Amino acid sequence: MKFFKSKLSTTAAILLVAVGILIGTQIQNVFSGDNIYEQIEKFKDVLSLADKYYVDNVDTQKLVDAAINGMLGQLDPHSVYIPARDVRQISEDFRGSFDGVGIEYDVVNDTLLVVSPIAGGPSEMVGIQAGDKIISIDGKSAIGITRDEVQKKLRGPKGTKVTVTVVRAGVDKPLEFEIIRDKIPLYSVTASFMANKEVGYIYINRFAETTGKELEEALTKLKAQGMKELVLDLRDNPGGLLDQAVNVASEFIPAGKTIVYTKGRIPESNEYFTSNGGNYNKIPLILLVNGGSASASEIVTGAIQDLDRGLVVGETTFGKGLVQRQFSLDDGSAVRITIARYYTPSGRLIQRPYGKNRAKYFMEPVEVDSSEKSGANLQHTLESDSGRPVFKTADGRKVYGGGGITPDYIVKMGDVPEFIYQFQVKRIFLEYVDNHVSQHQDRMRKEYGDAANFTREFQVSDKTLDDIYSRAVKAGIKIKREDFDKNIKYVAMLLKAQIARNIWGNDGWYRVVLTLDNQFQKALTLFPEAKQIAGLE
User: Fold this and answer.
1) Residue whose C-alpha is closest to residue 407's, from 382, 371, 370
2) For 70-88, what is each residue's pLDDT tens digit?
């Protein structure tokens, strides 16, 4: 959502932990005092007594962290404490970049495998390729390296050097590369390509500092390739920065229209956001969403739906209507505190009810999805008996608040065979591509030309599928041959997608995966409805 970084004084930091240790039945008593500083003194006394008299040595930092978590647990599920060790990672995620060598990697059988060099990054520039196995870093063995160790050894300040030794399929001797670390972008737009001659497809994975700019560049590229209609995929996008949600929505909404507004207890929490107007407010638009679409994703979706600007397809979104502000603490940790609620243009608060069970709250969208009815929902009759508050879109259609955003056309995602998860855990597809395909990727790139041709023409052979089954059994995966054969089309698709990703990156992966994505395939048939809602016929 919206993350500001402010510095708290030491007194304020103590204040945040003052009541955390007294939770449960005592919480009302904690807040009943006339003077909040009395509660600070109470907390200090308890902490001092525990440190002085407890039977074992006391880790006071651990106690304070637990107290903060206990206190924030009495507020809402999105007000959280962030330990110092996690702050940098989170900041990098939203800043949209980090300093490092620029590879996507995995650790397979104790070996550091380059899944893909990041386009334009320092590793790609020196010749690192997908499928390379890094066996040493700065002269020290990388065999048995952990994921945490990979980050410690490969990330570092821009301009510093690191030497890696790799083993490459088809090359007799190990190769040594000196890489100069640089700023590595973390892209929000994971994939963007023409799904057919008229329909563009863009997938946004989060809302970070560069998301609006990335989207604008992707739209410009697709327009030059003939895009006349667009599918914007926000599925499993957990959100991010509010201003970037406004920027994204503005691309499709005429200038001056309300996108979102916020209300809070303090005056600075009350804000009103309108569209700046983009170049695509007349393009037929379909948004794909599901239970993993939250926060900033829901701001965009709510604005598009409330203003009857496009069609929302998929499954009901998460239902997060709260705005957080992040405050830095003196020891490098931080707290993120809810300061406001946000409302869609129609006045909807889409926040789901929450109790004290945070695990249940975060799992609820999955449980709700299991009972959600599929079908056309342009007038939102499918949730008419839900008891949720009713609002009206710009053209007078009913929509509902209080429980996420329900699509205009509900399409359940097809079931994934259970054994597929074990295939992924055991890296069956990744290892097969590494062992049998990586050395042929240059030939395949020349043979098929691009990811679109590969998606249309490449077929996974029966012999390869038999090999995949044998590998799964050998890896200890309990799977019956009849179950494998029943889902063999899905297995072939995932293997093909892994090959495409190795050669063409994320665009290759998504092109293949979307061929068996029933939500996307249904969306392609719904542009007449999208045009009708937006008045573009």
Assistant:
1) 382
2) 999 899 999 999 998 888 7
Which of 362, 379, 414 is the last residue in one of the domains? 414
Q: Which residues contact 53 (CB under 8 A, 6 or more apart)?
A: none
CATH classification at residue 359: 3.90.226.10
- Of residues 240, 124, 104, the one with CA closest to residue 179: 124
CATH number at residue 168: 2.30.42.10
pLDDT digits (tens, 9 = 90+) for 394-411: 999 999 999 999 999 999
Element (H, E) at 272: strand 271-274
Q: Are residues 233 and 359 in the same domain?
A: yes
- List Cα–Cα distances, 363 to 319, 367, 387, 470, in angstroms: 12, 7, 21, 35
Catalytic residues: 295, 306, 320
Q: Looking up tokens 């940098």, which residue turns up?
A: 88
Residues 457 and 428 in one domain: yes
The torsion angles phi and psi of 202, rounded to 5 degrees, stand at -135, 130
CB burial of residue 126 (10 Å; 0-12, 13-18, 19+): middle
User: Side chain identity at 289, as an amino acid letter?
Assistant: V
